[in-house]
Amino acid sequence: MVDPEDVYRQTTPGSRGLHEKAVRFMPGGTTRSTTYFDPYPLFIDRGEGCRIWDADGIERIDMLGNYTAMILGHAHPKVVEAIRHQAARGTAFAAANAIEGELAEILCEQVPSVDQVRFCNSGTEATMFAMRLARAFTGRARIARIEGGYHGTHDHAEVSTHPDPAEAGPADRPLARPDSIATPAWALEQTVVLPFNAPDAAERILREEGADVAAVILEPIIGAGGVIAATTEFLERLRRVTRELGMLLIFDEVISLRVGPGGAQKLYGVTPDLTTMGKIIGGGLPVAAFGGRADVMELLDPRRQPNLAQGGTYNGNPLGMAAGVAAMRELTPDVYEDLNRTGARVKDQLSEVFASHGVAAQVNGVGSLLAIHFTPTPVTDYRSKATADDRITRDFFLGLVNHGVLMAPRAMGAISTPMGEDEIQRFVDAVDTVVTEQLPRWQAAG
Ligand SMILES: Cc1ncc(COP(=O)(O)O)c(C=O)c1O
């Protein structure tokens, strides 16, 4: 039987060596918890298109694309040129610049809810400011969120992202559970947790807790938490109830913006009050944004007293803005359509592979996003996702790394534009090989 960890150790001495050095200077040898995995993370040397090369020179298909951000692949010539051009002209000034206006205009034109936008540097900041803005606008303190959704790593976001179901209360009335050893008690008290895709239960909870809830924040398509699409009914119900109860509706489209021009909100035809964005909008540089209704965004206008201050030394820096403009201009409706068509095809092919081996797996996919859940239960919310077998997922992930593909350790991935027939076939073949190789281990473990 093939132990994927043994193979990984044998084939990645370069990464191991770099990690041994890095742990002396950084906790866990990394600066990003989500890229760490046992026994040590892969160190990437370079990327081009949908391919990446690790510290040992091994080439792999990048099915993760920096957690879905690299929709055009790595080192896209137009993006590289925009960065080169801007780098030579200066990268950051304590002043406004014309390019942020260009990216702002693109987002306002494309995303239905966005009348006005502000930039920041990460999705974490975007959701933090959106929540803060909602509190300022409504004068209410609490935020309602979805169990199993992900909104980054600030205090108010680190609640019930991945709770132990045994400690998280009933599925239709989830408890607020801390995700982090640092989650403060106030964040739990000021969070209302809603089940996903359960319109009646969510409405009941919001009516009970409504008086001091400023906003409901959710991903219309849960991304990092397993590529789980909301039903239209769920989004429409939240839209109606939040409006009635005086709460803002925030769509966190940091990942789901990649499903089409204007993101998931355009696809569903449900328009929130505020939207958070990130990943693809920076062309591979650290750019994120939050935007929405002009009468809400206006609280950020420094000409107004009082106003909500938003600092950030690198907010809207011309380097990130130039990369973002170059990338967003490449993303025409046809490009999204191609990506989504490929996504649908890969989803079907993977389902066939698992079925042919008799492996109980759910292949969730929306547009160019994919996630594989090793469970016989259809994955439609956090509790169904939590039935997946973590051990099989880990073997699968490491097995794929060994066979030339990088996905997220939770078996999530995304199609990028440089992926052609060959790369897709290589990915599907690698999945087939890994399942063939690992099946005896999975069967032996019962
Ligand atoms: C939906 C969503 N919101 C927020 C974030 C946080 O973004 P960042 O990692 O840029 O802070 C992420 C990151 O994956 C995300 O998927």
Describe the structure.
With 446 residues, the chain is an alpha/beta fold. The chain folds into 2 domains: 4-71 and 332-444, Aspartate Aminotransferase, domain 1 (Alpha-Beta Complex); 77-330, 3-Layer(aba) Sandwich (Aspartate Aminotransferase, domain 2), CATH 3.40.640.10. The chain is 41% helix and 15% strand. The protein has 16 helices and 16 strands. The chain has helices spanning 4-11, 13-22, 65-68, 77-87, 98-110, 123-138, 185-189, 199-209, 232-245, 263-268, 294-297, 318-330, 333-357, 382-385, 390-402, 421-444, and strands at residues 44-48, 51-54, 59-62, 116-120, 142-146, 191-194, 213-218, 221-222, 228-229, 248-252, 274-277, 288-292, 362-366, 369-373, 405-406, 412-414. The strands form 4 sheets. A 7-stranded mixed β-sheet has the order 4-12-11-10-7-5-6, with helices on both faces. It has a 4-stranded mixed β-sheet with strand order 1-2-3-15. A hairpin with a 2-residue loop joins strand 13 (362-366) and strand 14. Helix 5 runs parallel beside helix 12 (318-330), helix 13 (333-357) packs parallel to helix 16 (421-444) and helix 15 crosses helix 16.
Task: Summarize it.
With 446 residues, the protein is an alpha/beta fold.
Give structural attributes.
single chain, 446 residues, alpha/beta, Aspartate Aminotransferase, domain 1, Aspartate Aminotransferase, domain 2, 2 domains, seven-stranded mixed beta sheet, four-stranded mixed beta sheet, 16 helices, 16 strands, 15% strand, globular, binds pyridoxal-5'-phosphate
